Known about the structure:
By secondary structure, this protein is α+β, with helices and mostly antiparallel strands. The chain has helices spanning 121-134, 143-167, 175-188, 193-202, 207-227, 236-245, 271-289, 294-301, 323-330, 363-392, and strands at residues 5-13, 19-31, 34-45, 50-58, 61-63, 68-70, 77-80, 85-93, 102-107, 110-114, 117-120, 251-252, 255-264, 312-316, 341-343, 346-356, 359-360, 396-398.
Amino acid sequence: xxxLALLLLLVSVFPALAAAAEVKNLxxxxxxxxxxxxxxxxxxxGEREAEVSVAIIIDGQRRTADRLRLSGDxxxxxxxGTGKRIVWEATAxxxxxxxxxxxxxxxxxxxxxxxxxxxxxxxxxxxxxxxxAQNRIPQNMDTEARKQAEDAALEQLINAxxxxxxxxxxxxxxLDKQVADKAAQGKARFPTAAEYETALKTNNITEDEVRKLIxxxxxxxxxxxxxxxxxxxxxxAEIRTFYDENQDKFKQPMKYHARHILIGVNPDAPADDKRTxxxxxxxxxxxxxxxxxxxxxxxxxxxxxxxxxxxxxxFFGKGEMVPPFEKxxxxxxxxxxxxxxxxxxxxxxxxxxxxxxxxxxxxxxARENIRNYLKQQKTQKAATDYVSTLRSKAAVEKSAR
Length: 401
C-alpha cells in the first residue's frame, strides 16, 4: 500500500491580521539510502510580524521538527518581518522505506476545534475586525483591549459553530438555492466585478468562504427560529408591568406643528440685501394679516423646500429647530402668526398650526414597541441559554495563544 505524505505549514501570527505561506517546487529524492523531500517555502507576513513553523504529516501522523532541515541561517521557526516576503530551501527526511507519492498542502493555523471541526486564525481575525467595527472600538486600542476583542470574537465563532452543527440536523428546503441567492444579492451591491474582487482581497476571504458563511448564517437562523424564537411569547401582563415600572421611558416632550415662509438670504450678504429681504418678508406678513392664505403665499414666495407643501414643517420638538425659530414658535398659540424672525437662513414668518402637549405616552400607543422590546430581550437570553446548553455537550478545544 502506498504511503502518502503531506507537508503542512503552520502559520502562527502573534497576533496577525493577515499572513500567507505556501510550498513550491516540491520534489522527492534520495540521499544515500534515505528518501527526502525538497521544496521551497514561501512566507509573507501581513500587518504584523509572522512566525512560520514547519511540520511533515505522513499517514496522518505529525513528525516533529527535528526531522526537518532548513538551508542557510534559518531555524525551525522562521520570523517574517511586517510586510516582508521570504523564500528558502527546505528538506524533510522521509521514512527509509518510503515508496509512495508525496503531496503537499498549506493549512491555516487552527486555534480551536468544535467536535473536531477547526476554527482558524484567519476566521478569528475577520471576526475580530467585525466586532471592533460593530462596537466602534478605536483601531489604536492597547494590547489588552485587542486581546479581549480577539477572545470575544473567538467565543462567538465557537458558539456559532456549535449552533451550526446542531442546525445541520434540520431539513432545510432549497438551502443551496437560498445560499446562491444571498450570495448573488451581496455581489450585486458592488458596481463592478473588480470592486467585488477587491473587497474579497481586502477582507482576506474567498468567494467560497463567503458562501460558507452565508450557509452557516441561514442554518443557524433556522435553528434558532425553530428552537428559540418561535417559542417566545409576551403576555399583556408583562407589557403592563413594564409600562408601569418604566414611566420615565415614555415621557414625551411638547411638540409643535408649524408652517413657515422663508425669504432666504446669505448671512454674509451685504446689509442692503438683508434689508431688502426683511422688507419683502414684512410685506408678505402684511398680506397674511390682511387675510390672504398662508399656504398659498408659502408656495408662491418661500425659498424653503417645504414651500411645495404650503410651508408645512410637520411636528418638531425641542432642539430640532435653530434657537430663534424655536423660541418664536413656542411663544405662539395655534393659529397665530409670528413677526419676522431672523436666523442664519434668512427671514421667517411662522404660523403655529397646533401644539401637542408633553407627558407620558399612552399604553395603547406604546404597546407594540414594548412587546417587540420584551420579545427581543427574551429571545436574546433564550438563545444564549440554548447555545450554552449545546456547547456543554460539545467537545471544544482551544489552542494556547
